[in-house]
């Protein structure tokens, strides 16, 4: 008898595409704040606890797509048993099933929480309970979504009744109904703190990021992320400073040989140039996709805002002051005195040659706006205030998620701002100096871009944004390899295993995303 049940379970699991507990790592779940939801007929769906092995259960959602043949039958009460009839015929275009986080997700308060919560089934006394577990706070109580109202016989499929306040909906994009099923509640628990982006929940710069997002100065990607650890390119920085600072033009426009009028960042580059924030290279190029080192980002702000240094010895504050190029010393001193320098995780480490991240740009720009009196001060232990006590620092900088390159000579740059105590660059060019620039690079949580299978997916992949994001490089002026701004994960339906295991080993609990959080509908991206 036991062997018969095990064989049946193995065969059912194979047909339904269930090979394990099926909860893929949350980072691979496509989460899009721009996605909407639409109501569905609950009578055409069955939320099921599907048996796996002797005591394990997985969430399975069945859908009756057409009325050609019934996809399941129900019998009994408390609990209600499910007979998956779709196993008896080719259910293509008749039935649909969702077996993992690529087919279903949690949605609360009109926001998607697939990166924050993992769905699973646990036994509670004489019940099987559907729970959403917080991946970023294991101490937080799980959210109960539904239960079976009784234990089923061994090897039986059993219906899960959703609790009051929960229902099924489907994901939509631009009015089109997609295949992914939401377990939906109109409210979210009070202990969930919503941030502007899904991946900034635990990021050190989240307050700066949220504040600038509220001002429409920065924005995220279509998948609801900000990717705070992604490096920023010159064109991305140009887009940010041209939008953040309404300073008057200091010089007429110029034409860069590598910037075509049709280029998405052409106008932002011209505005950053006119306002004195950024310049070009001696060969009359702008190099828009080149990553901008921290030293150049700070020099850019100090130059464009016409900061000047008092001449005080402030650079000795930095433990790596010897790595600051001669041409940048005056500007870095001015930026330090005006308190726009933010160093994480060690406040005395400037890391001048390391590529600037999106989180760091948000912090620099916010501090510059504070200096201009446009925004209130945000208390932070990472703002450089010379003479202030040094706060306790994290043990390492590995949280940055970006490689720290060995210091090397910076490119020859001419900073056309006499008030910043300029030191002529070794190679001065007729074209005003190059001060790298970034645009809101979509966030620093690395994007996940699996290659979709030709077989139809439960939910289509949203069209990627047209603006490339360079790949971080350890060199201060790397040649980035553009990658699509956004390609939400769309893992295809699992392929039935030719030799299914009778007792599939449950998948390990997914490792939470480095900085997950809740999702808010982002503003239109500023060409991130």
TrEMBL record:
Entry superkingdom: Bacteria
Residue spans of biased composition, Pro residues class: 419-515
One Pfam family from the record: SLH
Domain SLH, residue spans: 192-255, 256-314, 315-379
Region Disordered, annotated ranges: 394-528
InterPro entries the UniProt entry points to: Cell_Envelope_Struct_Comp, DUF3747, SLH_dom
Biased composition range(s): Low complexity: 516-528
Name of this chain's protein: DUF3747 domain-containing protein
Organism: Stenomitos frigidus AS-A4
